[in-house]
Every structure is written in structure tokens, then in C-alpha cells.
Design a protein that fits this description.
This protein has 163 residues and is mainly β. Helix content is 10%, strand content 34%. The strands form 2 sheets. Strands 2, 3, 4, 5 and 6 form a 5-stranded antiparallel sheet that branches. Strands 1-7 form a two-stranded antiparallel ribbon.
């Protein structure tokens, strides 16, 4: 189901600003990430003497697993957006502009693309997360596991160096 933002009144000159606050369903299926809500897409599109710009924010609650200890991480993704809009372009690079079809922007696709590119590569429950013990699997954030650290036999001679 596509959701559209109609900008025809802006292009015709009837309005100079179109505010919006939309709830956009995001069909994002990634193994590590669970979406807790629809994306909230809000902001405005303004016409400043022919220069049309969209200033918006995407907010989305999600839950993921910590990349180090596998604990649940619940957070909010906030994506600020500022992008120019053009009714049509001639001989220009169109990657930096949104060009509406029939005066409308497909908000569902736009939000999806921005959400996918904004998610971090790894999630941490906290910056100083110690992760899991590689031997026994205990969460090291809860305390030491008692496993004896393994020393590479090639570096065994250096083990006494600092004593």
C-alpha cells in the first residue's frame, strides 16, 4: 500500500508551505531488527521563491540484539532529512533531487529507503559492552566467568615479560 504526499498546490502557487505528519508502515524484514511501530514521518515542504525543499524527520522504534552479548536493545531511530524538490529537471543530475510523479511523492518508498540506509551496522546495549566469554558463553557484563584465559603458544614467552 503506497502512501503519497500531494504537492500540486505548491507547484500551482496556491500554497507556499505544506506541513505533514504521517504514520508510514515500513515493511522491513531483517533477522536482527524488529520494528515496534510504524514510522512517523513529519515536517514540511516549502517553496522559497521557486526553491522547493522538504525538511522532515523520520522516527521509528525498533528492537535488535546487541552485537556483542545478544541482549535486547530497544531504541528509536531518528533520521533528519533535508532534500530539494524539482517539478522537472533538464540536463542535471537528478540524484540530489526528489522529482514527484504527477505532483506526488511516494512517501512509503522514500521512508523505506531512508530507514534502511540509516540503521547502524551493529547494535550495542551500551558502549562498554564486554560481550560473551568465547569459552563458556557467559555474559561478561554480569561479571567474570572464571575461565582461564587462553594464551597463544607462540606468545607464551612474553607472558612473563610484565611480571
Amino acid at each position: 500500500m503506497a502512501l503519497y504526499l500531494d504537492l500540486n498546490q505548491l507547484f500551482s502557487g496556491e500554497l507556499t508551505e505544506i506541513p505533514f505528519d504521517l504514520s508510514v508502515p515500513v515493511d522491513y524484514q531483517e533477522l536482527d531488527i524488529r520494528l515496534c511501530s510504524d514510522a512517523r514521518f513529519f515536517g514540511d515542504v516549502t517553496d522559497n521563491s521557486g526553491y522547493i525543499e522538504m525538511k522532515a524527520t523520520i522516527e521509528l522504534d525498533y528492537e535488535a540484539s546487541c552485537s556483542r552479548c545478544l541482549a535486547a536493545v530497544r531504541d528509536k531511530l531518528v533520521v533528519p532529512i533535508s532534500v530539494p524538490i524539482a517539478a522537472h529537471l533538464q540536463n542535471e543530475d537528478t540524484d540530489d533531487y526528489i522529482i514527484p510523479e504527477a505532483g506526488q511523492i511516494d512517501v512509503t518508498d522514500f521512508v523505506y529507503q531512508n530507514v534502511v540506509t540509516a540503521f547502524p551496522h551493529k547494535f550495542l546495549c551500551r558502549e562498554d559492552c564486554k560481550g560473551l566469554c568465547p569459552r563458556c558463553g557467559k555474559n561478561l557484563n554480569d561479571g567474570d566467568c572464571g575461565c582461564k584465559p587462553e594464551v597463544d603458544p607462540r606468545l607464551a614467552g612474553l607472558a612473563d615479560f610484565f611480571k
